[in-house]
Structures are given as C-alpha cells and as structure tokens.
Amino acid sequence: MSGTWIQEEIKNMEDKKEKPKKYGFATIPPSIYKGREENEIRLVKVFKRDGWKCQLCGKKLKPKDRGKFIDNAPELDHIIPWAKGGEHSYRNTQCTCRKCNGDKNDKELGQLRMFG
Predict the structure, then answer these.
(1) Within 10 Å of residue 10's Cβ, how many Cβ atoms?
(2) Which of 10, 58, 73, 116 sees the fewest Cβ atoms within 10 Å?
(3) DSSP assignment of 7-29, as one string?
(4) Whole-number Å distance between alpha carbons of 66 and 51
(5) Which residues of 80-107 are buried (b: 16+ CB within 10 A; e: fewer)?
(6) pTM of the full predicted structure?
(7) The domain 37-116: what is its CATH number?
(8) Average pLDDT of the chain?
(9) pLDDT: is 90 or 74 the higher one?
(10) Which pLDDT does position 25 carry in this prediction?
(11) What is the Cα gyration radius of the chain?
C-alpha cells in the first residue's frame, strides 16, 4: 500500500466502516485516539501561559500571526506527540513557533509540566 501510515489507517478504517474524528483540519483514525481521554484545550490559554514565547527556541511570538503560514506563527505543540501516545492536556502542550514545531515533527522535545 502506498502513502503515509495515517492514510493507510484511514483506508483500513473506511474498509471496516469506522468513522474518524475530526480535529480542526485533521482527521484522526481510531487507532490513535482509541482509549484516550479527550480534553478541550484553549490555544490562547496555552499561549498566554507560555508568555507568547516559543518554548523550544525562546523567540517572542505575536498574537496577530496566529494561523499564518510563516515561521514566527504561534502554534500549539504536544510535548509527547499524539502519534506516540501523548495526552491532549494543558500539561502536555506548549507554545512553539511554526518553524520549531515543524522541525520537531514527532520527537519528544520540551519540558512536561507538573501542572496545566
């Protein structure tokens, strides 16, 4: 089968007539979210907590750049990635710039928080 592993998971899921969950623009196959607690995360709350600063490179980020396709755009990052079993919680999320978040990919970088 060609394509990425997530495309293969979605195809397998469609063959079994399972429905994926939608998170923003992402479609998450059941094998990834199965058995996980779902918590609503407010992006701005995480960005404010982290002082609108990239937690990986330390760069100051601007709220007006949120959602833009530029290196300095603030993004929500899972410290322990979803793809590796990380939880969707305040203590497992951090503010990063788009460049660092893209470079990080599915690596575990950052400091897991004791409290949200």
Answers:
(1) 19
(2) 58
(3) HHHHHHHHHTT---EEETTEEE-
(4) 14
(5) bbbeeebbbebebbbbbbbbbbeebeee
(6) 0.65
(7) 1.10.30
(8) 77
(9) 74
(10) 46
(11) 15
CB atoms within 10 A of CB 114: 6
Please count the other Cβ atoms lying within 10 Å of the Cβ belonging to residue 8: 13
Contact 98, 71 (CB under 8 A): yes
pLDDT in tens, 95-112: 999 999 999 887 777 666
What are the pLDDT digits (tens) for 41-82?
Answer: 888 999 999 999 999 999 999 999 999 999 999 999 999 887
Q: Give dist(CA 94, CA 49) in Å, integer.
A: 9
- From CA 65, how far away is CA 27, in angstroms rounded? 24
Domain borders along the chain are 1-35, 37-116
User: What is the separation, in whole angstroms, between the first and last Cα of the chain?
Assistant: 40
